[in-house]
Amino acid sequence: MKRKLDANDVPSPKAAATEEELDFEALGLDPRLRQALIKEKFSKPTLVQSKAIPLALEGKDILARAKTGSGKTAAYVLPVLQGILQRKSNDPSLKATTGLILVPTRELAEQVQKVVTSFTSFCGKDVRSVNLTQKVSDAVQRSLLADFPDLVISTPTRVLANVNNSALSLEQLTHLVIDEADLVLSYGYDEDINALSKAIPRGVQTFLMSATLTSEVDTLKSLFCRSPVILKLEDKEEKGAGVSQFVVKCAEDEKFLLTYVIFKLQLVKGKVIIFVHDVDRCYRVKLFLEQFGIKSCVLNSELPINSRLHVVEEFNKGVYDIIIAADEQEIMGVPKPTKKSIEPADEDEMDQDKEEIGTSEDEDHEEASTSKKSRPEKRRKMTAKEKDYSISRGVDFQNVACVLNFDLPTTSKSYTHRIGRTGRAGKAGMALSFIVPSDMYGKHKPTSVSSAKHDETVLAKITKRQGKLGHEVRPYHFEMSQVEAFRYRMTDALRAVTRLAVQEARAREIRQELIKSEKLKRHFEENPEELRQLRHDGELRAARVQAHLKHVPEYLMPAKGRKGLSKEDIGYVGFKKTSENRIRKARDRNRAKGKGGRKPSGGKVDPLKTFNRGRK
């Protein structure tokens, strides 16, 4: 990197300081941590890392707002590990839990644990960490905590349970981290957090990491922080990137029609997350896509935790292109945090929070319809399983080209969380949302969902909120006259996806995933290569499969090809390799003709497929 020169051709001190900030060597970390950073190919710290780590090493409390994917995890893990190593060097016999990382979901806990493991690869004997969200018995968990791990990673519920039964002691805690701080309270952990605030000793260095600064974050700040340094960071490199946001107004059944057209004709390329209203909707959309030979996998809280984690990992590796996710936090209505006398960090942000916290008549009706309660102000408490799970935030999806809101969320905040899955770390992305106008709601009962009744009201709030953030939500217009040619195929496919077929698919998927998750867990630990062959996007075949729907005849294509389906170019070239393997294609063609390739099992050849080998 070239330094800026002043009028006397001398490197300016500001430039030199900037260059030092962009080097991990200048941060003064333990050599073993620097060695691990080199192994993990961390060449230069990101903006949040270069700003937060020096302040953390000085012992200051930090409240950092930074975009998802900006490196927040390393920004707090490295200072915590540095503190543990320093205490161990001063007192090698020290055995106590000195670091605690709180996260809102099990999936995020697993990801943080992996980061900790990678950074302690050269000091594993000196730093022991435990993830309390693992699905193990209470006895096993107590035994793990009996050895006084240096660092504990968990959801607030699990930590409080172990503190109450005396399995975990926080008396010598020195570092507290609350990751995704804006979600911890809103996910229903408010009672657990208030109880933990009394168990955690005063004077503990605290890190609050969040993608947004909200009233929930201010509540946590008032509970745990002492005059924290507030970092509101935005990478200059990311200003040109971001999420292009589009909305399509359509009838209820046209959601399925447009989804079929988008994927079958590859109008959107790359990895896609489809958000739907509930678990049944997951399988309805999956079975619908199966009719056209479009593979997808589902992600919801009914699936075992091991399967969910594996699905996310394989999606990030590019094994799957389409995930259909049920955003169940939206279905149940997330319990709202207890209001406290706090000072908001930003008036605009407070306005956004009022939009969600101040309940209007529409929102009351919305909650009543989605949670099926007679009194909207009374929300049912989420179970521990539901608290530990959400798909819109807390899960690290990588290289997502498009977020498709098949069913619009019920709040603008949830919309922001959903679209945050794409356009990360300087990359561009796209969010496409289907909106059902009020005059079209309930017109097609088989595909109707209760949340769609308020789509226009929620869209107005989304547009307002995104406008305050400087983002535009633009309407997108399909050429419906061209799309109409595909309607009869959509109708044919939907007829096969009956309610009974959805229920059977749901039960079958859960049975299959339970087998994969539990009985084969030890086998896969001993044979990791076979785990790569385990797929979650296979056909469920609960619905009547119609082979002719898998191919699009030429007469259905518009005169202008794919471009004739829309008034503007929606195509986003993502991270999927679309070119075919010519050698493999030729081999398959020859094999079909009976020329070359491997013979069928038993060494026999079907004489009906080739006359050359059948004649003597």
UniProtKB/TrEMBL annotation:
Task: Name a GO CC annotation attached to this entry.
Answer: nucleus
Identify the taxonomic lineage of the organism of origin: Eukaryota, Fungi, Dikarya, Ascomycota, Pezizomycotina
Q: Answer yes or no on keyword Nucleotide-binding.
A: yes
Q: Name one Pfam family in it.
A: DEAD
- Per the record, where are the segments of Acidic residues compositional bias? 344-366
Residues in domain Helicase ATP-binding? 53-231
Motif Q motif, residue numbers = 22-50
What is the uppermost EC class here?
Answer: hydrolase
Q: Keyword RNA-binding: yes or no?
A: yes
- Chief localisation class: nucleus
Domain of life per record: Eukaryota
Its function?
A: ATP-binding RNA helicase involved in the biogenesis of 60S ribosomal subunits and is required for the normal formation of 25S and 5.8S rRNAs.
Mind telling me what this protein is named?
A: RNA helicase
An individual GO BP term: gene expression
* Helicase C-terminal domain residues: 242-481
GO terms, molecular function: ATP binding; hydrolase activity; RNA binding; RNA helicase activity
Report the family membership: Belongs to the DEAD box helicase family. DDX56/DBP9 subfamily.
Gene3D superfamilies in the record: P-loop containing nucleotide triphosphate hydrolases
In its UniProt entry, the species of origin is given as Penicillium malachiteum
Enzyme nomenclature, EC number: 3.6.4.13
